[in-house]
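Thread: Newbie trying to understand structure tokens

Hi all, I'm a second-year student working on a class project, and my supervisor (Dr. K.) asked me to get a predicted structure for one chain before our next meeting. I've only ever worked with sequences, so writing a 3D structure as a token string is new to me. If someone could post the tokens and maybe explain what I'm looking at, I'd be very grateful. Here's the chain:
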Amino acid sequence: MNTLPATLREATETDLPQILEIYNEVILNTTSVYSEQPHTLDMRLAWFNERTAANFPVIVAEQNGVIVGFGSYGHFRAWPCYRFTAEHSVYVHKDYRGLGISKLLLKELISRAKNAGLHALIAGVDSDNEISLKLHLAFGFTKVAHFKEVGFKFGRWLDLVFLEFLLQ
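---
Reply by user tm_fold:
Sure, no problem. This is what the structure looks like when written as tokens:
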């Protein structure tokens, strides 16, 4: 494991296999994504193309040529009156968690959201994910909703917490 600081940059299509590896590990082993089936490279490509076509960022954290994390934001809701609100996601490779990479990615997403003229960022976090909850609270996010038993994974009900950060 490399503890050197990560470099942030725009993701490219060539990064998608490594992004997919990170995302699928999260799907298969955590409750950070309320999905049970691994995604395919075609699914990640469609996601990437949708984000970039809408001028939403997809950024990666890289160390020595290895993608160690990624983050993005996109539509919170697709209706026009939500156009100033985005929902973001940050994922870190399992071997690089706890090194501050999620902080780097979240800080960059907040900066880009402000520069894009957005008004609010939303985070949807599993209620048992104390690390992500603490991260968001440390950045000034406020808990605005707690949905009880809205997901089911690993044989148990999951609660979803929404946190909000007003950018302006």
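A couple of things are worth pointing out once you decode it. The longest helix spans residues 101-115. The chain has four helices and seven strands. Feel free to ask follow-ups in this thread.
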